[in-house]
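Anyone able to model this chain together with glutamine?
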Amino acid sequence: MTDLTKLTIAEARSKLKSREFSALELTEAYLGAIDAANGVINAYVTVTHDKARDMAKASDARLASGQAGALEGIPLGIKDLFATEGVHTQACSHVLDGFKPRYESTVTSNLWADGAVMLGKLNMDEFAMGSSNETSYYGPVVNPWRANGSNAKLVPGGSSGGSAAAVSAFLCAGATATDTGGSIRQPAAFTGTVGIKPTYGRVSRWGVAAFASSLDQAGPIARDVRDAAIMLRSMASVDAKDTTSVDIPVPDYEAVLGKSVKGMKIGIPKEYRLDGMPAEIEALWQKGIAWLRDAGAEIVEISLPHTKYALPAYYIVAPAEASSNLARYDGVRYGLRVPGKDIVEMYENTRAAGFGREVKRRIMIGTYVLSAGYYDAYYLQAQKVRTLIKRDFETVFADGVDLILTPATPSAAFGIADQDMNSDPVKMYLNDIFTVTVNMAGLPGLSVPAGLDSRGLPLGLQLIGRPFEEETLFQAAHVIEQAAGRFEPQKWW
Ligand code: GLN
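re: yes, here you go
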């Protein structure tokens, strides 16, 4: 029999319907692949073998009785940030040790309602803070991709590093992920997978551990554009439990795939051409421009003048919100408790032992920028900059631009424990230079693989669209995917 784990969601969906194999067989194939690979890749922090089998059997019963949902029998990995009832949910932090929620996030409820099967929880940067998956309490994830002729272990990106690695190494058919500043798109670019951060409000945040609530948004990481479209349709919903979710019908994103981009106006922002940007990134961008032009799109140069302030403003807004959101981890309500002589010392001991270095850094920055003497100078100023960034995008969209094309990341995947990248936190933060603007403006952004660099590592292009026009992103991403081809790592694990 062919390797079932190599099938895309769309392929598995039709073969399950025609009963070529059962949901249980498909799930067993994934569980076997995970058990063989996870010791090396470290993408999963928990594998829910029994739950997966039970869910697959229930799917088989529904398939047999003709009641199949949109994702019936499709085995998925879930980022550890999503609450899953009775199952390990720790945001890959020590402070949530042993936490098993009594409730299910809206996103995962939606997926299970559509028949998907849970394989387990995926590794990530602690509380989604990071760009390399190296801040996880559970250790780094290894990128399934390696440079030509090298055995060096590379990062899969972050914070959704487990999601991206699991999808790319065929350890799940698709994965949930979240993106506050780039955590879906950057790991997707580093692993040759497709990731979409939907418009703020498209997907419910209920049951997703909060990092920066005004920026956080969940979305899928998948093998190709079609699979990402299938997953987003199931994940998205309006939700009374998240008042920032928006009541707009969820379209059938798949329906736009194959539709021409003829006449579409695609903006190329000149501010994204950075000094010292690797020539390979520039070349990839030019290739993307040529593909879309050849497909009939009109290419126009645009200006987003406040781009250079996006990263500094993000690193004020995001830590500010994080310092407030993470105040709840106090040793009383969840997870870890380290005793002390009184309650204050218990809080201090718990938080000192429970949070890692990067999370502590964010809490301290956030507390500082929100403090009485500095609020106006930092937080308020950053909020004003955020408005200007949003306005930049509104202006180009008002001028008739349908989509914006940029590189997804300023480089390909780098090494685990890379000296240079870890020498200064700001170097790590620069990974998100092309992605944070999108979160600041609340827009949808998609990363699609577009080629390999000279060392054989995947690179991605980013498409940015108007609010709630995810369809346009899928439509153009499909054109790029058709031109660029598919990418999969050579198996070494
Ligand atoms: N790398 C960014 C950060 O560390 C973004 C993370 C994210 O999108 N969750 O904040």
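Residues 86 and 100 are 5 Å apart (CA to CA).
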